[in-house]
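Please go through the protein record below and explain what the tokens say about the fold. Record follows.
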Amino acid sequence: MDSSTDHTPNSAPFRPRFLSILCYLSIFGSSWVMMQSISSLSNPEQVSLEFTKNLEQLQVQFESAFQKDPAAGEQVEKLIANAAATNTASNMRDHSFFSMVSNLLTLLGAMLMLRLKKNGFRLYVLGTIIGIIAPLLVFGSGNLMGLAFAIYGGIFGLLFVLLYSFKLKYME
């Protein structure tokens, strides 16, 4: 009989190593981003100010890069101006709040999946969905910031959802 499927009352259920690695990566990542969100939530004005400085540096870099192609430079200038318009302390506070909620759900989900509970997968998916939709609601779906945050959350979140879905058969 295969030892991975033979469960005696005193032995723990089988958890694949890959599932453990995914869970620990999610716990680390969610904890890290949640701490950053709490920090940003406590001082959204500072986050907005830092982002404004980064946009100004980006604008200077693009000005020199697009001197030969003024049409492309105008497009980039519009994108930067659009991002700057939504860079308010209120938007940063709202984004930080939703990011904190999203990462709290993914953290709890990963901890439950580490204990082989399917409800953890559901929480993880909910946290991922919030992490994708919230930036679009806070910054707008036609805005560079909203799209960038949503795409970033979507790529990593959906990748992990897909990887977790392959291991659902081991969860109760």
About this structure: DSSP finds six helices and no strands in the chain. The radius of gyration is 21 Å. The helical segments are 17-42, 44-65, 70-85, 89-114, 118-139, 144-165. The chain has one domain: 17-170.
